[in-house]
Amino acid sequence: MKKKRFRFQWGAFLLLFFYGGLFFLLFSRMFMLQATGEVEGQELAARAAAKYSKESAITASRGKIYDTNGQVIAEDTLSYRLIAVINEKATTDAKKPRHVVNAEKTAKILAEYIPMDEEKIYKQLTRVNDKGEKPYQVEFGSAGRGISHETMSKIKAEKLPGVLFVNDLKRYYPNGIFASHLIGFALKEENKDGTFTTKGKMGLELTYNKELTGKDGKVEYETDAFSYLLPNSEKMVTPAKDGDDIYLTLDKTIQSFLEESMTVVEEEYNPESMTAIVADPKTGKILAMSQRPTFNPDTRDGDNMKWLNEAIEETIEPGSTMKTFTLASAIDTGVWDPNRYYPSGQYRVHDRVINDYNKVGWGYITYLQGFQRSSNTAMAHLLKLIGEDVFFDYLDRFGFGKKTGIDLPNEATGTLLSNYPVERVTTTFGQGSTVTPIQLIQALTAIANDGKMMQPYVIDRIVDPLTGKTINKHEPVVKGQPVSADTAKQVKEILASTLTAEKGTATDFVLDDYEVAGKTGTAQIPLGNGRYSWGSNEFLYSFLGMAPVDNPQLIMYVSVKRPKLKGDAGSIPVSKIFNPVMLNSLKYLNVNPEDVKHVDDTSIQDYTGQSAEAIQVGLANDGLKPVIVGSGGKIIDQYPKGPQKLVKGNFVFLKTEGDVTLPDFTNWSLRNVLAFKSMANLEIEVVGEGFVASQSVSAGTVISDSSPIVVKLKTPAESFKQDVETPPEGETTE
């Protein structure tokens, strides 16, 4: 058999060599990837994670700002952000366009709903990049953010193709014009990475921006190439950390009284500006603070307004309110003799003449009469008796010429002028030297609080909303004792006489139910170069007062600058703020007029673990009003906490286990209703301000479910108005 001759096939060999080489290279590459896990110096796992790992942000809420009773003053609320899809590639079905088809029409309609010009909206809708290409979608800056649900619904009803909305958070101020210069405002601000953060721009929102700002969280997860969530993939959640909540010393009810009164005076007298502060002299807590002109923090609308808190940041020449502290200095040094006579009218300081406000005075009168008539020359004569150095030492003790240390930014110090003899004299009656309204309030706490001067403050506590833990708690701070308790008592009595004396300057500030003590002020306004304005409409009118005299619960400063008086005395517009606010606030705080003359107090202790029924009897015998919150038995919590002293007539809430029996809320203050609500953990909806007039569920009802209970309140003025308009049958009103 003939053997086949072997023939070398070059073509087959070359193919084998080529594909064998490729296989070897591929195998080697696979081996290297398995061994090192890298390609071109990059981790394959990292590249895969970057491609298939996704991240979604969890937005943190900004901390809330509350009043002293837990009523919301500022919070984040749901809003909407406007987006327009302008790239044609978004539309797959021409019958159902998913992009803006008619930019001109869309711009015209959107301009009716958002604060942006039609032309600018159109420009945004027709925007192109450097390559002449349209972006997929566009936004409209601040004009397209913070859109309310109502506006969003109206825009949606227009059925504009390509116009979309996404959920957003907006800073919301539910009370409108409400301590606006104190609270300030916060706005959305775009970050470098295109995200937005709410940042404080003014007031407490700015000062405590760090504490209020939360930290966003995120959700990390893995997807496939088509962005579908992979089954059994590990989802990693980093929760958002909401900002801390801030509880203020402000009382919403008292602040509302103040805002309402200031608005009435502003509309009637059209002053250049007004400032007012209400404080608790026992602690230094600021309960209300406002000014005019003001603004709505939601819209930032305000005319002829200064973007600063005038009570803290602006100095004034205080006028005759400063005589309060000149009097205190004279009494404390032992030179005050109320029955001693002096020549009123004029007082010469070298080549300068100091006049009383009527230019001629009242002849020889006593120092007490001089103070009651607000005589400048009386203060000049007292300065000689006190001694200039001693007098300025007292002003230093009262905190003038330096910061109070209130927990607010940009506090001014004021300037006490003492270089020349005439400056020292004019300082005694509040001209030349400057102070701040908050310094006057701090100094007055010493007169109202038996000589102890309390530092003013507005932040009660800062709380972690997640844990409820108090991060920072502000306790009352005694700044010193500039005068003795006996001196403070005498000053209060003399201040009270300015309202009751026949020739007293403060008769417009008399209240029917409470005895008030205070000092009026009529300060010339400096024009510069040593010149001052003059005329009934050219003064800064003010009042610095307290009530009740025997045991002051509130102190208050009010100033009205350049009001259009129309024949009224300058004290009238000031009294139209001070009187209703002081009267309504004292009643709201349950300061009973009949108890004012002789204020009795009693002590309470920590009653936790004791029998509620036994403690109830004991507290009632002590003149307090105990309320059991629950079915009785052992006390598990109480409000107020003990041990402390309470004025007789105050409520004490004793919490026990079991269902709650609803009390009769009639004539309860808002503060007591809120305290009961908190202790009972019931759904109580409070409507109105002032005192309880009615309740939706009868007293004595045992509450075992979460059905809402509506409690309606009325201010004393509203109750009085109703009584006058609808007298009982058979009776007439005079």
Automatic annotation (TrEMBL):
- InterPro entries given for it? Beta-lactam/transpept, Beta-lactam/transpept-like, PASTA_dom, PBP_dimer, PBP_dimer_sf, PCN-bd_Tpept
PROSITE patterns linked: PASTA (PS51178)
- At the top of the EC hierarchy, this enzyme's class is hydrolase
Q: Pfam families attached here?
A: PASTA (PF03793), PBP_dimer (PF03717), Transpeptidase (PF00905)
Location of the protein in the cell: Membrane
What are the EC numbers? 3.4.16.4
The coiled-coil regions, if any, are none
The record's principal subcellular location, in a coarse class, is membrane
Per its record, the protein catalyses: Preferential cleavage: (Ac)2-L-Lys-D-Ala-|-D-Ala. Also transpeptidation of peptidyl-alanyl moieties that are N-acyl substituents of D-alanine
Please report the stretch or stretches of sequence annotated as the PASTA domain.
655-715
Task: Look up the record and name the pathway of this protein.
Answer: Cell wall biogenesis; peptidoglycan biosynthesis
| Keywords, comma-separated and alphabetical | Membrane
The record ties this protein, via SMART domains, to: PASTA
SUPFAM superfamilies named in the record: beta-lactamase/transpeptidase-like, Penicillin binding protein dimerisation domain, Penicillin-binding protein 2x (pbp-2x), c-terminal domain
Entry's family note: Belongs to the transpeptidase family.
Q: What is this protein called?
A: serine-type D-Ala-D-Ala carboxypeptidase
